[in-house]
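Just wondering, does anyone understand what follows?

——
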Amino acid sequence: MSSFSRSPRVLRAALALMEPLSGRVQQIIPMQYNPDSLSRTLQAKGVQADSGEHVEALRLKGPPVETIRLEAELDASEGLANGDGQTVALGLHPQLAALEALLHPSSSALLANQALAALGSIEILPMQGALPLFIFGPQRIVPVRIQEFSITEEAFDPALNPIRARVALSLRVLSVDDLGFMQRGGHLFISYLQNKEALARKLTGGSLQALGLTGI
């Protein structure tokens, strides 16, 4: 009997961390289960027609502000059933901690800034973290900023480790207006935009006749 499976291989969605300048991927956080739904909001960046010229209504200042919202599920049942040592000891703590770390400056950076402040440094720059990427298949690899992140822990083991949780994420896509053209994140956004344009060109256009019109 052939071992070939006709079931398609399902790709995993993920968040990844990239070093902003070198483009080196530092960490990949795959989603245990792909979300059942994903919502996207695009807000156009138009030009205010203060001059009174009507042509200004058609001008765009830059890429739209795109926000992605999704909810992911985490469940330790499989690891517990298989006797995975880390899952038995910690439940979902490592997965949740990795997601929360996307919003935290590192403890070493906090301590370094505190040391500078104690030495009387006049200016301390805000701490820069890694660049998060949202990966949802080959067509969507985009740099993002996590705007909102909420966790609902729904079940616990006897040691009060979370073993089932839901994570809601609100992600703002970072464009070249945010990152510039020189960083790897800016290149990724341009690739994302170019891919959208290529997909749009594949759409078969309609006809005026199908709309009951002979002209406009």
